[in-house]
Amino acid sequence: MTTATGLAVLFSAASAWLLLGPSPAGLRLARIADPAPAPLGPAIRARFEVLRERRTRPGRRRTSIIELCDGMAAELAAGRTPEEAFTLSAAVLDRHVAAELLTPGRPPPSIPDHLSELAREPGAEGLRLLAACWRIGTERGGTLATVLDGLAAALRDEEAQRQDVSVQLAGPRATARLLAALPLLGVGMAAALGAHPLAFLCGSVPGLACLFTGLAFNATGLYWTRHLARAAESPT
User: Fold this and answer.
1) Domain of 148?
2) What are the DSSP calls for 113-129, one per residue?
3) Listed residues 166, 181, 215: the one ending a domain
4) Is there a contact between 94 and 64 (Cβ–Cβ < 8 Å)?
5) Are residues 106 and 186 in the same domain?
6) What is the pTM of this model?
7) Integer CA distances (angstroms), 10 to 1, 180, 186, 188, 218, in order
8) Confidence at residue 204, expressed as pLDDT on a 0 to 100 scale
Protein backbone atom coordinates (compact mmCIF):
# COMPACT_ATOMS: atom_id res chain seq x y z
CA MET A 1 0.00 0.00 0.00
CA THR A 2 1.49 3.36 -1.03
CA THR A 3 1.79 6.31 1.28
CA ALA A 4 -0.87 8.25 -0.62
CA THR A 5 -3.32 5.35 -0.40
CA GLY A 6 -2.64 4.93 3.32
CA LEU A 7 -3.20 8.61 3.96
CA ALA A 8 -6.38 8.51 1.90
CA VAL A 9 -7.69 5.61 3.98
CA LEU A 10 -6.70 7.36 7.22
CA PHE A 11 -8.32 10.68 6.34
CA SER A 12 -11.41 9.00 4.92
CA ALA A 13 -11.87 6.98 8.10
CA ALA A 14 -11.40 10.08 10.26
CA SER A 15 -13.85 12.04 8.13
CA ALA A 16 -16.42 9.25 8.27
CA TRP A 17 -16.13 9.16 12.05
CA LEU A 18 -16.56 12.92 12.37
CA LEU A 19 -19.52 13.02 9.99
CA LEU A 20 -21.28 9.78 10.84
CA GLY A 21 -20.12 9.09 14.38
CA PRO A 22 -22.38 9.51 17.41
CA SER A 23 -23.32 13.05 18.35
CA PRO A 24 -22.53 14.48 21.80
CA ALA A 25 -26.24 14.31 22.66
CA GLY A 26 -26.29 10.61 21.72
CA LEU A 27 -23.27 9.93 23.89
CA ARG A 28 -24.93 11.70 26.84
CA LEU A 29 -28.07 9.60 26.40
CA ALA A 30 -25.95 6.46 26.24
CA ARG A 31 -24.24 7.40 29.50
CA ILE A 32 -27.63 7.96 31.15
CA ALA A 33 -28.91 4.58 29.93
CA ASP A 34 -25.71 2.78 30.90
CA PRO A 35 -23.90 4.79 33.56
CA ALA A 36 -21.01 2.32 33.86
CA PRO A 37 -17.74 4.28 34.15
CA ALA A 38 -15.35 4.24 31.24
CA PRO A 39 -12.12 2.25 31.67
CA LEU A 40 -10.06 5.33 32.53
CA GLY A 41 -7.71 6.00 35.37
CA PRO A 42 -9.08 7.63 38.53
CA ALA A 43 -7.23 10.89 37.83
CA ILE A 44 -8.62 11.14 34.29
CA ARG A 45 -12.14 10.30 35.47
CA ALA A 46 -11.87 12.91 38.21
CA ARG A 47 -10.74 15.50 35.68
CA PHE A 48 -13.69 14.72 33.40
CA GLU A 49 -16.06 14.95 36.36
CA VAL A 50 -14.68 18.37 37.29
CA LEU A 51 -15.05 19.63 33.72
CA ARG A 52 -18.60 18.27 33.43
CA GLU A 53 -19.58 19.77 36.78
CA ARG A 54 -18.16 23.14 35.75
CA ARG A 55 -19.99 23.04 32.41
CA THR A 56 -23.36 22.15 33.93
CA ARG A 57 -23.09 24.42 36.97
CA PRO A 58 -24.95 27.45 35.46
CA GLY A 59 -27.94 25.32 34.48
CA ARG A 60 -28.08 23.66 37.89
CA ARG A 61 -27.90 27.06 39.54
CA ARG A 62 -30.88 28.33 37.54
CA THR A 63 -32.92 25.22 38.38
CA SER A 64 -31.97 25.41 42.06
CA ILE A 65 -32.96 29.09 42.29
CA ILE A 66 -36.42 28.25 40.95
CA GLU A 67 -36.72 25.47 43.52
CA LEU A 68 -35.48 27.86 46.23
CA CYS A 69 -38.20 30.41 45.41
CA ASP A 70 -40.89 27.71 45.39
CA GLY A 71 -39.65 26.29 48.68
CA MET A 72 -39.42 29.66 50.39
CA ALA A 73 -42.93 30.59 49.24
CA ALA A 74 -44.30 27.37 50.72
CA GLU A 75 -42.41 27.81 54.00
CA LEU A 76 -43.49 31.44 54.31
CA ALA A 77 -47.10 30.46 53.71
CA ALA A 78 -46.70 27.96 56.56
CA GLY A 79 -45.68 30.75 58.95
CA ARG A 80 -41.87 30.62 58.79
CA THR A 81 -39.73 33.72 58.93
CA PRO A 82 -37.80 34.60 55.74
CA GLU A 83 -34.53 33.44 57.32
CA GLU A 84 -36.01 30.11 58.41
CA ALA A 85 -37.68 29.62 55.02
CA PHE A 86 -34.41 30.32 53.24
CA THR A 87 -32.37 27.93 55.39
CA LEU A 88 -34.86 25.08 55.13
CA SER A 89 -35.34 25.51 51.37
CA ALA A 90 -31.64 25.90 50.54
CA ALA A 91 -30.67 22.81 52.53
CA VAL A 92 -32.49 20.45 50.12
CA LEU A 93 -31.06 21.92 46.90
CA ASP A 94 -28.18 20.63 44.80
CA ARG A 95 -25.27 20.18 47.19
CA HIS A 96 -22.96 22.52 45.29
CA VAL A 97 -25.57 25.27 45.16
CA ALA A 98 -26.51 24.70 48.80
CA ALA A 99 -22.85 25.06 49.78
CA GLU A 100 -22.73 28.43 48.01
CA LEU A 101 -25.95 29.68 49.59
CA LEU A 102 -25.52 28.43 53.16
CA THR A 103 -22.32 30.11 54.32
CA PRO A 104 -21.55 29.08 57.92
CA GLY A 105 -21.46 31.93 60.42
CA ARG A 106 -23.28 34.45 58.24
CA PRO A 107 -25.84 36.43 60.28
CA PRO A 108 -29.43 36.33 58.92
CA PRO A 109 -29.76 40.09 58.19
CA SER A 110 -26.97 39.91 55.60
CA ILE A 111 -28.50 37.06 53.57
CA PRO A 112 -29.89 39.39 50.83
CA ASP A 113 -26.41 40.96 50.48
CA HIS A 114 -24.92 37.48 50.18
CA LEU A 115 -27.46 36.61 47.47
CA SER A 116 -26.59 39.79 45.56
CA GLU A 117 -22.91 38.80 45.63
CA LEU A 118 -23.67 35.29 44.38
CA ALA A 119 -25.81 36.74 41.56
CA ARG A 120 -22.58 37.65 39.73
CA GLU A 121 -21.88 33.96 39.08
CA PRO A 122 -23.05 32.43 35.75
CA GLY A 123 -26.58 31.07 36.09
CA ALA A 124 -27.23 32.80 39.44
CA GLU A 125 -28.77 35.98 38.03
CA GLY A 126 -32.14 35.17 39.60
CA LEU A 127 -30.66 35.61 43.09
CA ARG A 128 -30.49 39.35 42.48
CA LEU A 129 -34.27 39.42 42.01
CA LEU A 130 -34.75 37.22 45.07
CA ALA A 131 -32.63 39.57 47.17
CA ALA A 132 -34.60 42.58 45.91
CA CYS A 133 -37.92 40.90 46.74
CA TRP A 134 -36.57 40.01 50.19
CA ARG A 135 -35.52 43.60 50.94
CA ILE A 136 -38.80 45.09 49.72
CA GLY A 137 -40.83 42.55 51.69
CA THR A 138 -38.84 43.27 54.84
CA GLU A 139 -38.68 47.06 54.59
CA ARG A 140 -42.12 47.86 53.18
CA GLY A 141 -44.15 44.86 54.19
CA GLY A 142 -46.35 42.86 51.88
CA THR A 143 -46.90 39.20 51.17
CA LEU A 144 -43.43 37.91 50.35
CA ALA A 145 -44.75 34.40 49.68
CA THR A 146 -46.97 35.66 46.85
CA VAL A 147 -44.12 37.69 45.37
CA LEU A 148 -41.80 34.66 45.43
CA ASP A 149 -44.46 32.55 43.76
CA GLY A 150 -44.57 35.06 40.92
CA LEU A 151 -40.76 35.21 40.75
CA ALA A 152 -40.51 31.42 40.53
CA ALA A 153 -43.06 31.38 37.70
CA ALA A 154 -41.16 34.10 35.80
CA LEU A 155 -37.82 32.31 36.22
CA ARG A 156 -39.40 29.02 35.14
CA ASP A 157 -40.78 30.61 31.96
CA GLU A 158 -37.37 32.14 31.23
CA GLU A 159 -35.64 28.79 31.67
CA ALA A 160 -38.18 27.06 29.42
CA GLN A 161 -37.53 29.69 26.74
CA ARG A 162 -33.77 29.17 27.11
CA GLN A 163 -34.17 25.41 26.69
CA ASP A 164 -36.34 25.93 23.60
CA VAL A 165 -33.69 28.18 22.05
CA SER A 166 -31.02 25.60 22.84
CA VAL A 167 -33.00 22.91 21.04
CA GLN A 168 -33.48 25.15 18.00
CA LEU A 169 -29.74 25.88 17.93
CA ALA A 170 -28.84 22.18 17.78
CA GLY A 171 -29.18 22.21 13.97
CA PRO A 172 -26.83 25.18 13.34
CA ARG A 173 -24.30 23.73 15.76
CA ALA A 174 -24.33 20.39 13.95
CA THR A 175 -23.97 22.19 10.62
CA ALA A 176 -20.95 24.12 11.93
CA ARG A 177 -19.27 20.87 13.04
CA LEU A 178 -20.02 19.32 9.64
CA LEU A 179 -18.49 22.26 7.78
CA ALA A 180 -15.45 22.14 10.05
CA ALA A 181 -14.89 18.48 9.10
CA LEU A 182 -15.22 18.97 5.34
CA PRO A 183 -11.61 20.18 4.80
CA LEU A 184 -10.36 16.94 6.33
CA LEU A 185 -12.53 15.00 3.90
CA GLY A 186 -11.15 17.08 1.04
CA VAL A 187 -7.57 16.27 2.05
CA GLY A 188 -8.42 12.57 2.14
CA MET A 189 -10.05 12.68 -1.29
CA ALA A 190 -7.07 14.57 -2.74
CA ALA A 191 -4.69 11.98 -1.35
CA ALA A 192 -6.81 9.22 -2.88
CA LEU A 193 -6.48 10.90 -6.27
CA GLY A 194 -2.70 11.03 -5.95
CA ALA A 195 -2.43 14.79 -5.46
CA HIS A 196 -0.13 14.50 -2.38
CA PRO A 197 -1.86 17.27 -0.40
CA LEU A 198 0.23 16.78 2.75
CA ALA A 199 3.47 17.19 0.85
CA PHE A 200 2.17 20.49 -0.49
CA LEU A 201 0.63 21.70 2.79
CA CYS A 202 3.58 20.77 5.01
CA GLY A 203 6.51 20.92 2.62
CA SER A 204 6.24 24.30 0.94
CA VAL A 205 5.80 27.91 1.95
CA PRO A 206 2.58 28.43 -0.06
CA GLY A 207 1.24 25.17 1.36
CA LEU A 208 2.01 26.19 4.94
CA ALA A 209 0.35 29.55 4.29
CA CYS A 210 -2.76 27.79 2.98
CA LEU A 211 -2.72 25.35 5.91
CA PHE A 212 -2.48 27.96 8.66
CA THR A 213 -4.93 30.29 6.93
CA GLY A 214 -7.45 27.48 6.59
CA LEU A 215 -7.01 26.41 10.21
CA ALA A 216 -7.42 30.00 11.36
CA PHE A 217 -10.63 30.48 9.36
CA ASN A 218 -11.96 27.12 10.56
CA ALA A 219 -11.26 27.90 14.21
CA THR A 220 -12.71 31.40 13.83
CA GLY A 221 -15.89 30.01 12.30
CA LEU A 222 -16.35 27.51 15.13
CA TYR A 223 -15.68 30.16 17.77
CA TRP A 224 -18.08 32.65 16.18
CA THR A 225 -20.82 30.03 15.85
CA ARG A 226 -20.40 29.12 19.52
CA HIS A 227 -20.40 32.80 20.50
CA LEU A 228 -23.62 33.48 18.57
CA ALA A 229 -25.28 30.40 20.07
CA ARG A 230 -24.40 31.46 23.60
CA ALA A 231 -25.61 34.99 22.94
CA ALA A 232 -28.93 33.63 21.67
CA GLU A 233 -29.31 31.39 24.72
CA SER A 234 -28.53 34.22 27.16
CA PRO A 235 -29.75 37.45 25.58
CA THR A 236 -29.42 39.31 28.86
Assistant:
1) 55-166
2) HHHHHHTTSTT-THHHH
3) 166
4) yes
5) no
6) 0.66
7) 12, 17, 12, 7, 21
8) 87
